[in-house]
Design brief:
The chain has a single domain, classed as STAS domain (Transcription Regulator spoIIAA, 2-Layer Sandwich). Helix content is 40%, strand content 32%. It is built from three helices and four strands. The protein has a four-stranded mixed beta sheet, covered by helices on one side. It is globular.
Length: 77
Amino acid sequence: MAITYQKKLALFRDTVGVEEAEGLLEWFIKNPKSRVDLADCQHLHAANLQVLMAVKPVIAAWPKDANLRVWLESALN
């Protein structure tokens, strides 16, 4: 899986595809005050971005990839 769920943290790794979006939304519904770690994310499908934009979670770590970080920071801040 490209997303590993911990108690109050979702860890995004590598390529997070469209198939992850529904599970991500369900997890946030059950864990509304959770944070997101994007440090090891290399690609994020737009469906997951939409979930993050709707939920507005605290970002614990931004992507190491500079281009992805700029894109996500502009969308999520």
